[in-house]
Amino acid sequence: MSYKRPPSRRQVKIARVLRDAISETITHHLNDPRIEGLISVTEVDVSPDLRNADVSLSIMAPDEPTRRRTLHAILHASRHIQTLVGRQVTSRYCPHLHFREDDNLRRTLETLNLIEEVSAEWRPPSDDAPPDTPDP
Q1: pLDDT in tens, 29-42
Q2: First to last CA, the chain
Q3: What pTM did the predictor assign?
Q4: Which position among 37, 71, 72, 119 has the lowest Cβ density within 10 Å, counted as fewest Cβ atoms?
Q5: Domain locations in the chain?
Q6: For domain 9-118, which architecture applies?
């Protein structure tokens, strides 16, 4: 069994800087019409050697094709994002960014919607209703 070591303070600091820079770059510096909806950087995981970073994106779009198109556009612009983020990071080098979709938020919202639907169908008896009287 292998154990993953917790990230160092330097990894955490670089991840925080990268998350802010990537978020700002996607929001303000990409002019691709395929990018729609709310995009948030949920997590950045920097490797111990600080050479690579896995970037998790949460994409809230009106429908599935729009969400896929937005993710594809971001993946297509990854080199441009890498360049712009590299200019913002004041480190010797900028980690190579690997983008992936984080669908935890979307699945959580779907689960909450299902719970809401089920709770709307099931209504407990109200106290104002007259008690059931048996028929003679």
Answers
A1: 999 999 998 999 99
A2: 70
A3: 0.75
A4: 119
A5: 9-118
A6: 2-Layer Sandwich (3.30)
